[in-house]
């Protein structure tokens, strides 16, 4: 009996010790279309794209949920759930996101679903933690309803897809008077039934070899100051052979990125060069000696995608990225039922929740 009483006393003492001091933590709910919410969401999208090394840039489509927690001793933490859409700009493309086209449903669009925790302190937003995944926006059946004849996404390791990418790159290198380019990744592919053909998009990188002089591609090395490109190709099956059409955009290496300028100054926009396989490509020697690629850098080249993957899943975007989520974990406790802080509403058991999800910027998926 004494042991039981002692155990109960210890349990009570432990409960008092583990309970957070002070009143129960409050969070405030913003409208999903509130300018402050949208600012946090755009910071999240920028963070996502800055960590993409493969696939395509994403843009904000809808804000699903938002909660704003106080953070001790200063600032607030925004918990934001957002939906994104894949654009046609590759992750290595230095084109500003605002100038990138959103991929449409009939092209078998890809959507992202992301959860972010974002710290706002002294008017500045910074990402604490991020988690995303992505999937084709519609099933094959839904795409067929919108466009019965539109081709669907194909697995990137399909033998026809790999062959089309390799044949297209070989054709491009054969007609180039500049650098020899290597395959970085196959980014997207579609199989077209009539005429029987394969559409493929892939990223490439320049090497220290001249295309016309290459005898052993294995001896070619990527340039120290990386130069990337992005290609679109169609391989059409013909009687007695096949026909390849390929167009590549080479992202020229840029001068050292200047420091951010005050509002109102002119910004330098990276130059994009559309290259036809029959046109010469300037060799690396003609480029500035002090240069680097604007945007994220490829750490490793993946010549073969994971089995049956038809798109780059955003869940891999933050692999190896350190999260400081624990720093905010001491401030709010998501496991508890919190009080909702509503301006002008005191002591309401069921407060009016601001409109969420927010507006759709492109199309509903």
Explained architecture:
This protein is of the alpha+beta class and 365 residues long. It has two domains: 23-151 and 311-365, Nuclear Transport Factor 2, Chain: A, CATH 3.10.450; 154-254 and 271-310, Nuclear Transport Factor 2, Chain: A (Roll), CATH 3.10.450.10. It is 17% helix and 33% strand. The protein contains five helices and 13 strands. It has helices at residues 2-18, 35-50, 140-146, 159-175, 326-329, and strands at residues 26-28, 56-70, 76-90, 110-121, 124-136, 179-192, 197-210, 228-238, 241-251, 254-255, 272-275, 291-292, 339-341. The strands form four sheets. The protein has a five-stranded antiparallel beta sheet. A four-stranded antiparallel beta sheet has the order 2-3-4-5. A two-stranded parallel ribbon has the order 1-13. Strand 2 and strand 3 (76-90) form a beta hairpin. The protein is globular and about 70 Å long. The chain starts with a helix and ends in a 24-residue tail after the last strand. Alpha-2-HS glycoprotein derives from this precursor, when the connecting peptide is cleaved off. The two chains A and B are held together by a single disulfide bond. Pfam families: Cystatin. This is Alpha-2-HS-glycoprotein. Residues 1-18 form the signal peptide.
Question: Could you give a short description of this structure?
Answer:
The protein has 365 residues and is α+β, with helices and mostly antiparallel strands.
Stretches where pLDDT is under 50 for at least 5 consecutive residues are: 15-23, 255-305, 322-349
User: In the CATH classification, which architecture of the largest domain applies?
Assistant: Roll
Order of helices and strands, N to C? HEHEEEEHHEEEEEEEHE
Continuous helix count: 5
Number of domains: 2
**What fold name goes in the CATH topology slot of the largest domain?**
Nuclear Transport Factor 2, Chain: A
The oligomeric state is single chain
- Portion of residues within helices: 10-25%
What is the percentage of strand-forming residues?
25-35%
- Give the overall shape, derived from the CA principal axes: globular
**Main sheet specs:** 5 strands, antiparallel
CATH class wording of the largest domain: Alpha Beta
Report the count of strand segments. Answer: 13
Rounded radius of gyration (Å) = 26 Å
Termini separation comes to 63 Å
Strands of the biggest beta sheet: in what spatial order?
Answer: 6-7-8-9-11
Class from secondary-structure proportions: alpha+beta
Average pLDDT, all residues: 77
């Amino acid at each position: 009996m004494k042991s039981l009483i002692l155990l109960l006393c210890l349990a009570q003492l432990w409960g008092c010790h583990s309970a957070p001091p002070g009143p129960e933590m409050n969070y405030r709910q913003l409208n999903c279309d509130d300018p402050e919410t949208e600012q946090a969401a755009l910071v999240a999208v920028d963070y996502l794209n800055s960590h993409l090394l493969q696939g395509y840039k994403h843009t904000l489509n809808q804000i699903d949920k938002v909660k704003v927690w106080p953070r001790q001793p200063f600032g607030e933490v925004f918990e934001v759930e957002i939906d994104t859409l894949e654009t046609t700009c590759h992750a290595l493309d230095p084109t500003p996101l605002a100038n990138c086209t959103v991929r449409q449903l009939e092209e078998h669009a890809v959507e992202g679903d992301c959860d972010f925790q974002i710290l706002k302190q002294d008017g500045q937003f910074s990402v604490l933690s991020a988690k995303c995944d992505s999937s084709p926006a519609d099933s094959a059946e839904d795409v067929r309803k919108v466009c019965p004849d539109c081709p669907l996404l194909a697995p990137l390791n399909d033998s026809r897809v790999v062959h089309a990418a390799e044949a297209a790159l070989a054709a491009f290198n054969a007609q180039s008077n500049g650098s020899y380019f290597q395959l970085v990744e196959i980014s997207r592919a579609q199989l077209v039934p009539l005429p029987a053909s394969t559409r493929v998009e892939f990223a490439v990188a320049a090497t220290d070899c001249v295309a016309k002089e290459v005898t052993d591609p294995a001896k070619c090395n990527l340039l120290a100051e990386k130069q990337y490109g992005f290609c679109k190709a169609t391989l059409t099956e013909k009687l007695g052979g096949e026909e390849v059409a390929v167009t590549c955009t080479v992202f020229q290496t840029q001068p050292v990125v200047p420091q951010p300028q005050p509002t109102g100054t002119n910004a330098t926009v990276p130059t994009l060069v559309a290259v036809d396989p029959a046109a010469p490509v300037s060799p690396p020697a003609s480029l500035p000696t002090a240069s680097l690629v604007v945007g994220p850098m490829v750490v490793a080249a993946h010549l073969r995608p994971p089995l049956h993957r038809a798109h780059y899943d955003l869940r891999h975007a933050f692999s190896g990225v350190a999260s400081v989520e624990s720093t905010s974990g001491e401030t709010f406790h998501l496991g508890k039922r919190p009080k909702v802080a509503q301006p002008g509403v005191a002591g309401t058991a069921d407060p009016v929740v601001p409109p969420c999800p927010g507006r759709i910027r492109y199309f509903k998926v």
